[in-house]
Design goal:
With 183 residues, the protein is an all-alpha fold. It has one domain: Ferritin (Up-down Bundle). It is 70% helix and 0% strand. It contains five helices and no strands. Helix 1 runs antiparallel to helix 3 and helix 3 packs antiparallel against helix 4. 27% of the residues are buried. Bound molecules: fe (ii) ion (2 copies). The site of one fe (ii) ion (FE2) has 5 residues, from helix 1 and helix 2.
């Protein structure tokens, strides 16, 4: 008896998403290691923590494929991109990567509509919301460096940024949770 509830195409696309999330984790890990090498240990730890978030995303997709009776097929993870030149470009590249991941999720959602696979559509809504938050999270990083003024010599702001990010969670409140009293 066939208990697989995922189409071949859908299972392949979800398996690709596993690779994408693992790939994202790899990028955060690599940028974190670079930041540590540059002396930004607070930012490094922040990026390492976020690498784990991406691995959690990967696990969610993997679990979902299993729960739907599909086959998980892991693929090779690409080498991370070259090291960034500075913290500003590091955060800029993170933002760009989050946007490209969002686009992948949107393609998946579209596939669900075409196949009328409403279970997977419903599962992916968590990722749609999560990516909205991840994009805001990355936008905030870009803003923080703008405020700190990047690596101008004698700039104490980068020191403070690094120190603050050591304990930053990266959690972003969803816009739908905001109220007039609690903006
Ligand atoms: Fe992710
Ligand atoms: Fe992400």
């Amino acid at each position: 008896m066939d208990t697989n509830r995922l189409s071949k195409k859908m299972a392949a696309a979800l398996n690709d998403q596993i690779t994408e999330e693992a790939n994202a984790a790899q990028i955060y890990l690599s940028y974190g290691a670079w930041a540590a090498g540059e002396g930004y240990n607070g930012i490094a730890r922040f990026l390492f923590r976020h690498a784990e978030e991406e691995r959690n995303h990967m696990m969610k997709v993997l679990e979902y494929i299993i729960k739907r009776g599909g086959a998980v097929k892991l693929a090779a993870i690409a080498a991370p991109p070259d090291n960034p030149n500075n913290i500003g470009s590091c955060f800029g590249k993170i933002y760009e990567h989050e946007v490209s991941n969002t686009k992948m999720i949107y393609v998946l959602v579209k596939k669900c509509m075409e196949e009328e696979d409403w279970a997977t559509w419903n599962f992916l809504q968590w990722f749609v919301k999560e990516q909205t938050e991840e994009e805001t999270f990355a936008m905030n990083l870009v803003d923080k460096v703008k405020l700190a003024g990047n690596e101008k010599s004698g700039n104490n702001a980068m020191y403070i940024l690094d120190r603050d990010m050591d304990s930053a969670t990266g959690e972003v409140a969803s816009a739908t949770d905001v109220t007039a009293v609690n903006p």
